[in-house]
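Appendix B.2, paired examples.
Example (i):
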Amino acid sequence: MSVPFLNLDGIPTDTPPEDGAIYFALDPQGAWYPNCDTFLYDIDSACVTLHDSFAKSLFGGLEQYHAFLPAAPEFLSTAGMNSESTVSRADFAKLVEQFPTDRPFNLALYLYDCRKLVSGIQECSKEVMQLQGEFYAVLNLEEFFFPSIDEPDGIRYVSSPVVTKLTTLLGGVFIRLHSLLDYVTKVAYEIENLQTSFDSYPKLSAKSILYGDRKRISLNKSPGTLFEPCTLITEIEAVRNHLIHDGLLDDLPKAYRVIRDQACVEKFVLFPDRTDEGHFEKFKNRTLFYGTEDKINQRLPDLVIDFMRRLHATTKALQAQIDPPNEDG
């Protein structure tokens, strides 16, 4: 049995669409990815460079950092961060107190804390693409209701455990996109406020910084980045905040099926109406209007691609900040 291609209208096909539309295909590792540039490799490459740039900036050069590594205990980069480390909070505190003063262990702890922020960008980017792929896999391949029944022509909505999974995946995409907004703001703030004293283990300057604090960084409003004011970012903020603070995007999560000649020819999920600026349309207590019949499944890939393009530009801007290019060379 051939592996189908997933389409934005929720109807899988054995061959890709011929009209140039975005579709999803299964990669060898079992994930569904769109047939367009996701910028994942570019973002990951920029983050790898950021990892090195933090080490170069804090240690005074990569050579000095690499010379330190053979004597560096593993727990410096794992304790309190990684499930592979069995060091408890109490044991970690004791180890930190016993650091020899002639070794840059506190500096190394701080470096790995900075790097953890960069790793957050890398991992959240992957999660966004994975969640989006799974959303389309459920939309295309899973039965919304069991057992199947004969249905007259028309549009029917379905609410079921499968639809709950579908809308949860969709919400997860927006929540993770907003996590990336927080991560890039933290990295930007940390770069501009790097700690310089390591007599003790320092806190991150950006520990309490979130995307809402972007006015405190020099990259705020930079064109083409995630810090540029635009409808895309406003929508992501509005959706994420609604999901976290107000719960559901529909009082009864549902998906729609279009039936024609007793066959399903389209599936879709509706998204609430928004203003031209990206905010939800609201009237007093009501914030979920559906007058525009916005089918989020038809535009989600474009939204994610636009975000990832801006994320790549943002990581490049961060790299230029912490390690400015040599104008002479």
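Example (ii):
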Amino acid sequence: MRRFRNEPDPLGSETYASQLIAELMNGDDPAQDEAALIRFIEYATERGGDPMLALIRVLADLAPMPAARIAAEYAANRLVRAGCSDPRWIDDLGHARVVKTRTFGDVYGDQTAVLCTFSGPVRTHALIGFVNLTHPGGFLTDIILTTAIDKAIVSFEKHAAESGGLSRLEEIPPEQASAILRAALAESYRAVDVADEVRQLRALLGARLTVLPSPRPVAVDDAPDRLVNALTENASSRHRDVLEAWRTFGNSYDAGRVDRLSPSKMLAFAEMWNGDGTDVAEVLRNLLQSHRDETPDGLPPAAEAELDETLAEAFPGAVHAAVDTSWLDDLTAS
């Protein structure tokens, strides 16, 4: 912190403090994590000195728990009264402003990267949160901090251009970015298996999200299985078994988005299905046609082709066999 406190921009200090918070929090017990942060703040206060004051100032802004932020604020005031000097960036701490928000994601809705660009007193920087959307609330798989923003955007643009329409880079309202990242960040604190890249920077991401506008209410699809319901009404008994299995799978694997189709979802379903592959292929082709009928311009041709190819890959040379749905018991129980 001695080096960081003399910089004109708090970003280096914020990054250091975010990584420190990750080391202090084991993630198993929120109460223990809070206690660990408060104990460290007390230790830093007893050590005293200008570098410790700088660190405590950042912890007062980044700590995920309100009690830890309050403790840090109190400790910082105590050190100032003892004669310690604030870092040169103190007036800029907590005052980053959002510049632009973008998403880069696949057209199926499996995953997205949310790129938020922020201003700073010296350096504009971006935080990129990679979110798996098949997890309820979204699941953060990685967080990247970069000041090479143009390079990152060019890379995303290149991948989108080379994907044949399977990926898109789009500018979105800050409220939408806030909704995606807040939900995914909250889920990361409830999850057990969180990537180190996420743990290291999620405190910084959380602080930055406070300067984004409040999320708009998200429009909820009140019938995420309407297409499957419609197909079930006139389905044969074998196809009805497949559709019910797909419904259960969608509720468990895909955060309730039963009607949604994607190559990865099809392949995951194929790994769990022990019944007739021909029936599954027919059902999913019918579901794909239902999507076409509902939104004729919904998916680019490359996506249509990829879905057809995935069906052929997932269920090659299928023959009729008895439908085995015993795996549904374990899936429902989990």
